[in-house]
Each structure stands twice: as C-alpha cells, then as structure tokens.
Amino acid sequence: MTKRLVEIDDTDLEAAKEALATTTIKDTVAKALREASAQAARRREITRLTAGSLEGLAAKEDRLKLWR
Predict the structure, then answer these.
(1) Who wins on pLDDT, 41 or 52?
(2) Domain ranges in the chain?
(3) DSSP states along the chain
(4) CA-based nearest residue to 35, from 24, 22, 48, 47
(5) pLDDT by residue (tens digit) across 11-41?
(6) How many whole angstroms separate alpha carbon 29 and alpha carbon 22?
(7) What is the average pLDDT value for the chain, to the nearest integer?
(8) Predicted model pTM
(9) Are 20 and 31 in contact (CB under 8 A)?
(10) More confident of the two residues 62 and 15
(11) Spatial contact of 17 and 23, defined as CB atoms under 8 Å apart
(12) Buried b or exposed e, range 31-64, using 16+ CB within 10 angstroms
C-alpha cells in the first residue's frame, strides 16, 4: 500500500463520511474508492446486458443449444 498526500475538502469529506457511514478519513477514502469501482463495474454489466448479450436465451430451443 502506498501512502499519498492529498488535499480533501472538509465539506466533501464530512458528506462522504455521512453517506458511507464511516468515521475515519482512511475508511472513508477506501470505501469511496471501492464504491466507485463497484459502480463502474455495474455500469459495464448494464451496458453488456442492454447490448443484447442475453438474446441467445430468449427462445427455448436456443437456450437448449447454448447449454449443451
């Protein structure tokens, strides 16, 4: 793990602490980074699903072919 020196706006930090239910700066930053990564992964999954990646499962005969 690398230590970093960053400036963080106090108002933003307090808002993030409240939103994330954290008490320390370290926990708040760590949880915010995890949440941001998870949100990006969810967006990618939604894009994949809405792009038609499940079309092959629509018809029963197609589903059976996919599972064989």
Answers:
(1) 41
(2) 10-67
(3) ---------HHHHHHHHHHHT--SHHHHHHHHHHHHHHHHHHHHHHHHHHTTTTGGGSSHHHHHHHH-
(4) 22
(5) 999 999 999 999 999 999 999 999 999 999 9
(6) 9
(7) 89
(8) 0.72
(9) yes
(10) 15
(11) yes
(12) bbeeeeeeeeeeeeeeeeeeeeeeeeeeeeeeee
Tokens matching residue 5: 């020196």
* CA distances, 43 to each of 37, 40, 60 (Å): 10, 5, 28
Q: Hey, what amino acid is at 40?
A: A
Residue partners of 27: CB distance under 8 A and separation at least 6: 20
Mean of pLDDT values over 45-54: 82
